[in-house]
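Re: the request from the purification team.
They wanted to know what the chain is likely to look like in 3D before they choose a buffer screen. I agreed to run a prediction and write the result into the notebook, where they can find it.
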Amino acid sequence: MINFNIPPFTGREMEYIRQAVENQKICGDGEFTKKCNEWIEQKTGTAKCLLTTSCTHATELTALLADIKEGDEVIMPSYTFVSTADAFVLRGAKVVFVDIRPDTMNIDERLIEDAITERTKAIVPVHYAGVSCEMDTIMDIAKRHNLLVIEDAAQGIMASYKGKALGAIGDMGCFSFHETKNFSMGEGGALLLQDEKYIEDAEIFREKGTDRSKYYRGQVDKYRWMNYGSSYLPSDMNAAYLWAQLELADEMTNDRLARWHQYNDLLQPLKERGILELPTIPEGCVHNAHMYYAKATDLQERTALIDFLKENGILSVFHYVPLHSAPAGLKFGRFHGEDKYTTKESERLFRLPMYYRLKEEEVDYIVSKVKEFYHV
């Protein structure tokens, strides 16, 4: 069986975990956590990076920093993972979904402004498959309406928009290091802050509501309970696992890109015959080969294709069920405007195996079976 995903592993992880244990500081903000934070800051240009226990928790921190309250509204696409919405729903906000673009599966930037009300506090663009949303337009809308932009860049590390790293364009951004992502620590994430005014509050919220970070830096002689908060710090052993991959980030990204382009080249005949739609990478966007997806004609065809691939030892999957159609989406959100593409496109999209060290001959075999299904 060719798995859909195999968590990334470089071979250095266990040695670094051993070092973390020998350092006798395996809780949060140890040596490896600091290395990861500094690497992300240097790579993205963000003012501050704080590693977290998950991208979900990083997004929850953005909701705290944005001071989201009961009755506020947050605009986002419905085609995303539940964590994008959960972080704001937990604070009492209403989620306002708008339609996506069929070419990138990202939020349609042309529809955002019409969804803004006097209750709107933030726009949350989701960079699907590591391909950027149209951030110039989104940032302009936010500036004119005095709104925050919180980037869900869970899939976006090592990707960019017009030379700017995803996650470091809006006011705040979030990365994921879940086992399905390009770089992993099992579960984990990162909060990226562009404005230094948020740093102190972020450290307090992340450290159970205390100024413990200041204490460790020697800025105060004892730490105190300063505000509400929670424990969003990952173990330094998890960070050690991640550090082994960040050291090889370029190599690992290039490996994924090679397989992405192999898929894209080999599937061109199906695109040319109008059988499949392949990914679109807009001008100015540099993606990270987070996934390779294509679109079948409809739900029935997609289901049959996924079943056929499984019968041939290939695990292919679909992706999100749009949030606005889910029970919690109906309870905590509303869809603004017409659902022209979100549901229809989500029912057509399927994802092919993509992971670090996926073999060239495996991609050849996968594509051969896709072509066999379509009698090409």
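For the purification team: DSSP finds 14 helices and 13 strands in the chain.
Please add any questions underneath this entry.
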